[in-house]
Amino acid sequence: MKAVRFDHFGGPEVLAIVDLPEPHPGPGEVRIAVRAAGVNASDWKKRQGLMDEELPQTLGHEAAGVVDELGEGVADVAVGDRVFGFSAEPAAQAESVVLSHYAPIPPSLDFAAAAAIPAALETATRAIDQLGVRSGHTLLVSGASGSVGSAAVQLAVARGARVIGTASPANHEYLRSLGAEPVAYGDGLAERVRALALEGVDLALDVAGSGVLPELIDLAGGPEHVMTLADFAGAQEHGVRFSRGDAGRAIHAIGEIGELIESGRFSLPVAQTFPLAEVAEAHRVGEKGHARGKLVLVIGE
């Protein structure tokens, strides 16, 4: 099967499409013929040697496709079903992948839209669960227009929270469409937030990692009310919680999101799709940081 791999660290040019043996599912797993796979910032960090040291590496933890092989004990899906989910190994950017956690694709989604969801949904769900967001809270999301930020906005709104989100002015109408009250980031952020919420906010989530933790702490009334997904050093410096997957992932979210999707209360836009052979271009576009929505590799039929 064809798969993305790199044998040494470097720029997008080190990415290659290689032939690898087809995987087979273990107990409780399924194999899919991949139709689409998500591209994430962790991919280019790995490619640059910033996350994992081993070589060679394959890439991708989220995919959508058609089940073509069942592991022992699997009875909740059948060969031919459309599913999306997570692979335990970073190997989803390929023609076939084994999913360790999966769910039926909501009927209204195509494969690219489904592949855009798992990683952002899990990260956002984990963060707002760990923060304890509930009805009646006012939540400030710093970096609200990206995939994880917009997922967090929609999940918090669905729980009955009031959400204030930071984004560039060009993305303010988008945030309004998600149910958030937009404010511009940058100097004067605290004053702009207090113009909307005089007493500050109950909780704050930093998705962007842009050095705003002191302002978020001030607005939320202390570091215990703030969580960051992107600023590990700042979290240590300011006593803020850093959301880590190894503390328990919210994998369950993919099996629960269908109702919100089908009722029109949750969506993640696909910014651009690329064939598998153009994965290097997907990295170049992603590293520029201007895409609103997910970058997705489209594979197979």
UniProtKB/TrEMBL annotation:
This is NADPH:quinone reductase-like Zn-dependent oxidoreductase. Residues 10-297 form the Enoyl reductase (ER) domain. SUPFAM superfamilies: GroES-like (SSF50129), NAD(P)-binding Rossmann-fold domains (SSF51735). Pfam families: ADH_N, ADH_zinc_N_2. The keyword NADP applies. SMART domains: PKS_ER. One of its GO terms (molecular function) is zinc ion binding. Keywords: NADP, Oxidoreductase. Gene3D superfamilies: Medium-chain alcohol dehydrogenases, catalytic domain, NAD(P)-binding Rossmann-like Domain. It comes from the Bacteria.
